[in-house]
Amino acid sequence: MNFTEGELLNYLASFIWPFFRVSSMFVTVPVFSVASVPARLRVLTGLLITLAILPTLPPMPAIDVFSSQGWMVTIQQIALGMTAGFILQMVFSFMMFAGQTIAYSMGLGFASLVDPATGVQVPVIAQLFVIASSLLFLTVDGHLLLIEMLAQSFHTLPVATLGMDQADLWRIIVWSSQIFAGGLLLSMPVMTALLFVNISFGVASKAAPQLQIFGVGFPITILLGMVLIWIGLPTMLEAFTEMLHESFTLISQLLRLN
Q1: CA separation (Å) from 88 to 1, 40, 132, 172, 246?
Q2: Which of 64, 98, 208, 218 would bridge 183 by S-S if both were Cys, CB 3.0 to 4.6 A apart?
């Protein structure tokens, strides 16, 4: 059996562009983009998913892979996959920001660990929130839903030189502001309670200067913060679930699924 050069390039295009869109998602998607997950495993997972959905994909455009238009198509596919994972990564940053704010209010800002996802030091409270969010994300099959949406996007947003436009990028920028607003609102009850406790310690130190307020107040602040986190963690996870639903809605809009 003989194949011409054009046929071989068509076969390559029908595989390489879907592979770029799928595999680039694992570069930014939470849980799977951490440094502890080997790059070979992410590439192999993207390869297997691409092979699984390849028979259901529509025909690829008649564009040379190594031409200038082919490079534009490649950039668009990588951008689509990375953007879908990055939006979910911002949802986890929403929980991390809330955990950092609460940790600094408790006086645990010095107790930091290296976050495996970002490679920077974050307080242990933020790590607790991220771990709980990761377990919830896997429990509700968020990673499977993202893969399904990405597979369906080849029908609603076919492989072409044009993918996301300026309006889509602006929509992502506007939506990202919810990370700071939502994280601050989520941590506000704990911050307010700890603020009143610190104010009461300040009043007590003025009324009785001989008391060792720092020796007593610091453990009480940490203990009260732990109790408030234990009480409010279910509500925080519910807020994370709502933010996760909004992120999937935004991804479906970018991929033209609705």
Answers
A1: 46, 22, 15, 11, 10
A2: 98
Alpha helix (H) ranges present in the chain? 5-28, 39-53, 68-106, 124-139, 142-156, 166-176, 178-207, 213-254
In this predicted structure, what is the pLDDT of residue 29? 85
**Total domain count for the chain?**
1
pTM: 0.81
| Region of residue 63 (phi > 0: left; psi between -120 and 50: alpha; otherwise: beta) | beta
What torsion do the CA atoms of 241, 242, 248, 252 make, to the nearest 10 degrees? 160
How many whole angstroms separate alpha carbon 203 and alpha carbon 39? 55
Name the DSSP letter for residue 65: T
Q: Give the model confidence (pLDDT) of 218-233 as tens digits.
A: 778 888 888 888 888 8
Asked if 30 and 80 touch (Cβ cutoff 8 Å), the reply is no
pLDDT of residue 118: 57
DSSP state of 187: H
Q: Helix axis angle, 5-28 relative to 68-106, nearest 10°?
A: 10
Query: What's the per-residue H, E or C state across 110-139?
Result: CCEEECCCCCCEEEHHHHHHHHHHHHHHHH
Q: Which residues contact 116 (CB under 8 A, 6 or more apart)?
A: 34, 35, 36
